[in-house]
Amino acid sequence: MYARIARFEGLDGEQIDGMLAGIKRDVESGERPAGLEDSKGVWVLVDRDAGTSLGIVLFGDEEGMKRGDAALNEMNPDGGARRSGVEMYEVGFRYEGD
């Protein structure tokens, strides 16, 4: 499993809500943008006080993550956010409890 983690800055509470609504709408539509066919999950962490968020997209393999990274780099963040960094990791351990 691999994870692409993007950091976003410059958001207020209303923009965070708009960003989350857009992501939820896109994910629930069931249609994945080209390059994201291999994605296995999405987590979005937000810090409303700081106006920041982390977007974590999970992939089954490194090649899928590279294709996803290229596709996501072509997209503009929703809600007025500014992408301030992207990092990619192999998931060394994962536990999903009850």
Description:
The chain has 98 residues and is an alpha+beta fold. It has helices at 13-28, 62-73, and strands spanning 2-9, 39-47, 52-59, 82-90. It has one domain (2-90): Alpha-Beta Plaits (2-Layer Sandwich), CATH 3.30.70.100. The protein contains two helices and four strands; from the N terminus they run E-H-E-E-H-E. Strands 2-3-1-4 form a four-stranded antiparallel beta sheet.
In brief:
By secondary structure, the chain is of the alpha+beta class. Helices cover 29% and strands 35% of the residues.
- At the third CATH level, what is the topology name? Alpha-Beta Plaits
Give the biggest sheet.
4 strands, antiparallel
> What radius of gyration results from the CA coordinates?
13 Å
Instruction: Provide the spatial order of strands within the biggest beta sheet.
Output: 2-3-1-4
Q: How would you name the oligomeric state of the polypeptide chains in this document?
A: single chain
Order of helices and strands: EHEEHE
Q: Give average pLDDT, whole number.
A: 89
Beta-strand fraction estimate = 25-35%
CATH class: Alpha Beta
User: Helicity, in percent?
Assistant: 25-40%
Cα separation of the termini = 20 Å
Number of helices: 2
**Contiguous uncertain segments of 5+ residues:** none
Overall shape: it is globular
CATH-derived architecture: 2-Layer Sandwich
* Helical/strand content category: alpha+beta
Count of β-strands: 4
Total domains, how many?
1
